[in-house]
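Quiz preparation item.
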């Protein structure tokens, strides 16, 4: 049976899927009377054509790296964690409680404490569905979806009735102390030579990249990572080998929830500087697409997160400078998800046949 080369499976399949999504998106634009070339040029120029555009693209990328890694860790354990949105919102609550608890003398101390708070709150929120799966057999997909809505309702209650300062109308917490303000890329020495204007991208980007390295090391360089991957490949075989399924489900979801919670450092502490109602900004759901397109590998997740960061910023530019509806960004994202997820097998099968024909012609010529 013909099989794709490793490089084709890792790189060519996602690229072909992305190309097909782009072709369909271009046809949709033409169907509504818009120019695909103009749309592409505006997106590229707005997201990548200036340091200012890159600042916003990297800001979105940072959030998507965290949530993409969260989905990746759970996926390798055979778990489909769709609860990144709720885990990120609870992580945001952890960040807010930590930042508001003290008058922080320096942002480095506040960042370290807020990172721990975000990870702990996100992991705690993921632990409940994990326990229900491990002990009661409740499907992780159903429970994590339900917990997204519970997290949203809980956050609204806390913002309206508990954390909102007296006399303030909008449902949001008080602003964080000055000592908890994270430096943006334009405020970091040397990097500010590139980013000379104020941008939302901040030091959290480097934490996200570090977490990608940590996840790679855990999954492929530790005994725990081997157990997680073995359990995800075959639960009966893992049980036979003495791997405790309850432990693996719990630890994988705790790591996954912690990563999703850490996403909130970027937008709650780094950009908004207070806790808002929509603190996750949809990044929990985008993380699913990022993990799928990144082939559930940290390097692929970083690259896919950059792509979706480009789509987010480029889509916003479409809404500002053209008559193309900003919702086209959602259409393009949906097409990317469709081809990299649901139609992944179709693309793989077509490429396998193409490689098979190439090999046959090469052997015939020989």
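Solution:
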């Amino acid at each position: 049976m013909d099989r794709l080369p490793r490089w084709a499976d890792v790189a060519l399949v996602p690229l072909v899927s992305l190309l097909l999504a782009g072709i369909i998106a271009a046809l949709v634009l033409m169907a509504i009377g818009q120019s695909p070339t103009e749309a592409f040029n505006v997106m590229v120029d707005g997201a990548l054509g200036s340091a200012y555009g890159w600042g916003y693209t990297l800001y979105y990328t940072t959030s998507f790296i965290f949530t993409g890694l969260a989905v990746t860790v759970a996926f390798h354990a055979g778990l489909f964690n769709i609860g990144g949105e709720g885990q990120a919102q609870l992580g945001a609550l952890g960040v807010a409680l930590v930042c508001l608890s003290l008058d922080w003398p320096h942002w480095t101390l506040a960042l370290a404490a807020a990172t721990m708070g975000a990870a702990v709150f996100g992991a705690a929120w993921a632990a409940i569905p994990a326990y229900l799966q491990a002990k009661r057999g409740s499907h992780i997909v159903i429970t994590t979806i339900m917990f997204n809505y519970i997290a949203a309702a809980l956050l609204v209650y806390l913002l309206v009735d508990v954390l909102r300062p007296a006399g303030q109308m909008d449902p949001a917490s008080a602003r964080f102390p000055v000592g908890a303000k994270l430096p943006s890329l334009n405020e970091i020495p040397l990097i500010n030579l590139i980013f000379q204007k104020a941008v939302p991208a901040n030091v959290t980007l480097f934490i996200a990249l570090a977490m990608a390295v940590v996840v790679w090391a855990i999954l492929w360089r530790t005994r725990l990572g081997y157990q997680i991957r073995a359990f995800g490949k075959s639960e009966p075989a893992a049980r036979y080998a003495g791997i405790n399924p309850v432990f693996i489900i719990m630890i994988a979801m705790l790591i996954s929830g912690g990563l999703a919670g850490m996403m909130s450092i970027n937008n709650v502490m780094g950009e908004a500087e207070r806790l808002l109602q929509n603190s996750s900004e949809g990044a929990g759901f985008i993380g699913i697409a990022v993990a799928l397109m990144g082939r559930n590998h940290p390097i692929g997740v970083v690259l896919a997160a950059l792509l979706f960061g480009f789509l987010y910023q480029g889509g916003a530019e479409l809404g500002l400078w053209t008559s193309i509806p900003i919702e086209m960004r959602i259409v393009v994202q949906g097409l990317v998800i469709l081809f990299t997820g649901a139609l992944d097998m179709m693309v793989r099968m077509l490429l396998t046949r193409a490689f098979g024909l190439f090999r046959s012609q090469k052997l015939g010529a020989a």
